[in-house]
Amino acid sequence: MRYGYWLPVFGGWLRNVENENMEPSWAYVKKLAQRSEQIGFDLTLIAELNLNDIKGVEAPSLDAWSTAAALAAVTERIELMVAVRPTFHLPALAGQASGQHRSHQQWPAHFKRQFSSWWADEARKYGVAFETT
What we know:
alpha/beta
């Protein structure tokens, strides 16, 4: 059995709790990833969203790709899994990047269709066509 968690890139995941004491900052997620690695967690999933759908679109959130790359430099074994959204990336190119070897681990890609197709307003804000059929 492997243990993992969703990295709180939005300052937590609860919609009904205003402040979960999980700050969306590099300092916080670095400390969390290093500590979770120390106590035996196997992986963390880093959600790729351009807007914060949990705490509100005006609330801060961390970029998945740069956060994952930075965490790779300060962790040793925890698997960093970016939830790639094909709405914003060509799957073949994202898959190519996922296979590139890094210092201590392979870069895994987490392809899930639901990440790419549920938030039409966000896609349109970034100029991406959003199909509903």
